[in-house]
């Protein structure tokens, strides 16, 4: 089972002029096996939503709730959330100099599972995941994200998704900055994850392009810190044709 | 005991005097102790050092009979022994050192014996030469002189390994022959109460490669000056440093790459971590590019990672350029706390905060440990970093996953 329920979520960030409200009451439920796409213009608060679910210290929750299978997510630390089954593929994956990808992956897997993975199968799993994402096995010895191209960083995020096997994955603009080949590789990775039993996906994107490869069950238009409209995948086609203008003028 | 240094001085006076340099950071040298006043602490070269804790080493503390045991291995083809009398005297100034402090002048003038490490020309020493210095009595103020002579086209690694409790002033002189390839590692893994004042002076021969690594973990006060001059064009010096200061510790590293010859290189990387109340580190990176030193390349970098409140890291790169004809010169200096985004990234993969911090610190030092390039001490350095982390960052963590065992 995996059910992520976001209810009336309000979030602020600290600015020089005091706290600024970014999320203004987000309500969303992702049931098991469902893929929800969140589409919205730049600055609408999509990353803020992703980071708030994952627990980034920069964001302050001022109201609402987030639960995963009934468990209060907001009271958990960042690592506890990950161990509870949440995964965030970041828009801008972070470089960690001097920490090798293989050491990082093994440390993460050990933390998530509560025990070290079996060495024999693990090495195979890692190499397989890297290969499927078109990353050379030599990435294992490189420092995490350091010197990776934009596309390599994104593919590395999806390799982690495959290996860490969360319940719910939040993908923050994993598609942006990818050429068409890389986009297909990433989409295939996400689709392999979706084929697993009972997984939820929250796919955040600015463009409709990726939705041709990852077919969502629901599409939500995100404007000015909240969901402006929800619908099926036909909503994406409508956005493709009309853009966000209609929603933006409504928000002003 | 006092020995005269006349022979040394007259030998040096026959060499052409180097062009005089106006620089407050590089006071003129002299072998005569009387030429050096006892420092007050206001001098540029002393302003960070807590003189009170030096137990008089910087001034006129008696150099007593040593309470620090000194043992070593002797790989084939190498001569290592304690020498005294004329032979010891002849080694003073071997590196071109003309003392610019009272204490170093005293060491050269007063210490009766020298430890000589002599590697003949064209000799490739098959294993590291390891000298273990183990202090037994911190109440004994003492001094030592080490002379390393590497013949032309020789290749060797020397590790000076300091443990236990000492109050010691040490001058280490290193002469790297033309075309030689030499690594000198000095590990300060002292007990908490040790006081160690040292000056490592190297003269790098024509087309020679010299690597110096200063690694400081223990001691109440550790100060090391690691200096380099060049004997001819084409010499290259890599100056590495790794330090980890705990509560109350003062660890000070100064380097001075004095580009005295054209087309020489210096590359310095010092990295430190600090933790605990009043942990204090100092890094001063002096680079002087003299008029003759055309076509040189220099880069120096110091990074400090502050792990807890109450620490202080001073970091001062200082580049003085007297010629316009240089290939490249740069420096970087940064002191930072843990990067929230790095920790968040690791934690978002299920890794606990402490484990994330541990990964980041190991990552911070990893490249540097590899750059030291002495496999036999790599594991030990990783273990020591781990032990340092255990004092603070990891104090509540019970078990640790194996680190560094990348398959
Ligand atoms: N530290 C900050 N100070 C002020 N505004 C911020 C800060 N961080 C984020 N914001 C604002 O929050 C809004 C939402 O940002 P973000 O969640 O990154 O949007 P999106 O991912 O949809 O492009 C933006 O308008 C951004 O400028
Ligand atoms: Mg964003």
Automatic annotation (TrEMBL), chain A:
Keywords: ATP-binding, Nucleotide-binding. Residues 4-249 form the ABC transporter domain. The keyword ATP-binding applies. Pfam families: ABC_tran (PF00005). SMART domains: AAA (SM00382). Belongs to the ABC transporter superfamily. Ycf16 family. This is Fe-S cluster assembly ATPase SufC. It comes from Nocardioides pinisoli.
From TrEMBL, chain B:
PANTHER family: PROTEIN ABCI7, CHLOROPLASTIC. It holds the Pfam family SUFBD_core. This is Fe-S cluster assembly protein SufD. Belongs to the iron-sulfur cluster assembly SufBD family. NCBIfam families: sufD (TIGR01981). It comes from the Bacteria. Residues 142-364 form the SUF system FeS cluster assembly SufBD core domain. Residues 1-23 are annotated as: Disordered. SUPFAM superfamilies: Stabilizer of iron transporter SufD. InterPro entries: Fe-S_cluster_assembly_SufBD, SUF_FeS_clus_asmbl_SufBD_core, SUF_FeS_clus_asmbl_SufBD_sf, SUF_FeS_clus_asmbl_SufD.
């Amino acid at each position: 089972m995996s059910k992520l329920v976001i209810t009336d979520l309000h979030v602020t960030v600290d600015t020089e002029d005091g706290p600024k409200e970014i999320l203004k009451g987000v309500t969303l439920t992702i049931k098991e096996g469902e893929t929800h796409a969140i589409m919205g213009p730049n600055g609408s608060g999509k990353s803020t939503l992703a980071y708030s679910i994952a627990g980034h210290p920069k964001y302050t929750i001022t109201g609402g709730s987030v639960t995963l299978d009934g468990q209060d997510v907001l009271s958990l630390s960042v690592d506890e959330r990950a161990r509870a089954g949440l995964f965030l593929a970041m828009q801008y994956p972070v470089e960690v100099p001097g920490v090798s990808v293989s050491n990082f992956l093994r440390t993460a897997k050990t933390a998530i599972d509560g025990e070290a993975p079996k060495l024999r199968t693990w090495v195979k799993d890692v190499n397989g995941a890297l290969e499927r994402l078109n990353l050379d096995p030599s990435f294992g010895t490189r420092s995490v994200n350091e010197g990776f191209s934009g596309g390599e960083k994104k593919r590395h995020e999806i390799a982690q998704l495959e290996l860490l096997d969360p319940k719910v994955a939040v993908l923050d603009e994993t598609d942006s900055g990818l050429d068409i080949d890389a986009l297909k590789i990433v989409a295939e990775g996400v689709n392999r994850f979706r084929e697993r039993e009972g997984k939820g996906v929250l796919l955040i994107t600015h463009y409709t392009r990726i939705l041709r490869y990852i077919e969502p069950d629901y599409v939500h238009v995100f404007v000015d810190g909240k969901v402006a409209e929800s619908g099926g995948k036909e909503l994406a086609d409508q956005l493709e044709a009309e853009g966000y203008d209609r929603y933006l003028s409504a928000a002003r | 005991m006092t020995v005269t240094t006349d022979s040394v001085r007259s030998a040096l006076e026959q060499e052409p005097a180097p062009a005089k340099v106006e620089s407050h950071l590089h006071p003129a040298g002299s072998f005569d102790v009387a030429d050096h006043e006892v420092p007050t602490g206001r001098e540029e070269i002393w302003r960070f050092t807590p003189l009170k804790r030096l137990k008089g080493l910087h001034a006129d503390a008696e150099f007593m009979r040593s309470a620090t045991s000194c043992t070593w291995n002797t790989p084939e083809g190498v001569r290592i022994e304690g020498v005294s009398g004329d032979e010891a005297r002849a080694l003073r100034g071997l590196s071109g050192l003309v003392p610019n402090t009272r204490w170093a002048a005293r060491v050269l003038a007063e210490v009766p014996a020298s430890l000589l490490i002599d590697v003949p020309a064209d000799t490739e020493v098959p294993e590291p030469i390891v000298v273990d210095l183990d202090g037994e009595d911190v109440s004994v103020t003492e001094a030592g002189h080490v002379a390393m002579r590497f013949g032309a086209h020789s290749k060797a690694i020397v590790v000076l390994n300091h443990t236990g409790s000492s109050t010691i002033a040490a001058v280490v002189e290193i002469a790297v022959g033309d075309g030689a390839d030499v690594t000198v590692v000095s590990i300060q893994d002292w007990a908490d109460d040790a006081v160690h004042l040292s000056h490592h002076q190297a003269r790098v021969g024509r087309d020679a490669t010299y690597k110096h690594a200063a690694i400081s973990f223990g001691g109440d006060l550790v100060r090391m000056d690691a200096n380099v001059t060049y004997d001819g064009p084409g010499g290259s010096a890599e100056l590495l440093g790794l330090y980890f200061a705990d509560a109350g510790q003062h660890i000070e590293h100064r380097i001075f790459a004095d580009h005295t010859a054209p087309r020489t290189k210096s590359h310095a990387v010092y990295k430190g971590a600090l933790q605990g109340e009043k942990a204090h580190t100092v890094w001063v990176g002096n680079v002087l590019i003299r008029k003759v030193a055309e076509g040189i390349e220099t880069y120096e970098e110091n990074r400090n990672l502050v792990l807890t409140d109450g620490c202080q890291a001073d970091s001062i790169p200082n580049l003085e350029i007297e010629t316009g004809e240089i290939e490249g010169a740069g420096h970087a200096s940064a002191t930072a706390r843990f990067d929230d985004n790095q920790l968040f990234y690791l934690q978002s993969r299920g890794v606990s905060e402490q484990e994330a911090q541990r990964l980041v610190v190991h990552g911070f030092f990893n490249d540097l440990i590899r750059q030291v390039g002495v496999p036999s001490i790599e594991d030990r350095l990783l273990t020591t970093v781990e032990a340092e982390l255990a004092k603070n960052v990891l104090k509540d963590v019970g078990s640790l996953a194996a680190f560094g065992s990348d398959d």
